[in-house]
Amino acid sequence: MEDFAKNQNSQSTDKDWNTFWKNKKNQARLSWSKKRILTLLKRSVKPGMKVLDAGSGSGVFSKWFNDAGCITVSLDYSEEALNATKQHTDGKSAAYISDDLTDPELPDRSPARFDLIFSDGLFEHFESDAQDIILRNMIKLLQSNGKIVTFVPNLWSPWTVIRPLLMKGIKETAFTHGKLLKLYGRNNCKIISSGGINVLPVSWSPEKILGKTFGMLVYSIGINADD
After folding, report:
1. Contact residues for 50 (Cβ-Cβ < 8 A; gap 6+)
2. 121 C-beta neighbours (distance < 10 Å), count
3. Would you say 160 and 174 are in contact if contact means Cβ atoms under 8 Å apart?
4. What is the pLDDT of residues 148-170, one digit of tens each?
5. What's this model's pTM, rounded to 2 decimal places?
């Protein structure tokens, strides 16, 4: 697959992200939080699917997609993040792409269309107008009946107090469940499932009751409303 041209537009700079991902402590950890994300992902993933890991970071999810038999494209605009992804995936992704998801011309440069586009910890690092462009780009990059799966930090979770201490130099604006639904709705993305996860860091966690309000992460799964 051809590389996309790089053109960044984020609240945090390329230097901030390269510094963050260069730190080995931030790389390739399958935390209890990520394991719960994978529990939800398993419902949507099948071998042979074309998957875009949008904002691949340390490569944890790209590796999981590869191991699940998917044709995975790992995308991040941080070179250090892509290096970490390549290392963690043993170079097994179909492509490693450095590009800016806020560039409206990105879908025109892409030769691929995807069955599933996944992001964890992406949208909160961009301003509202950039978030709209990213989601519209994702919709354009979907195959017919493809899905967009998004996880973002929850504004009302205690984690929002701790997170800045662990991600120094990285700016973000947390979401509420309602704000995430509005992002999908105003960009023609039909929601088929949503909620919140990681209320408690223990094996039993009241996600169905309190997840949307107090979960560490809120999520939404959507499809192109025109499909």
Report:
1. 70, 71, 73, 112, 113, 114, 115, 116, 143
2. 17
3. yes
4. 999 999 999 887 777 666 666 66
5. 0.87
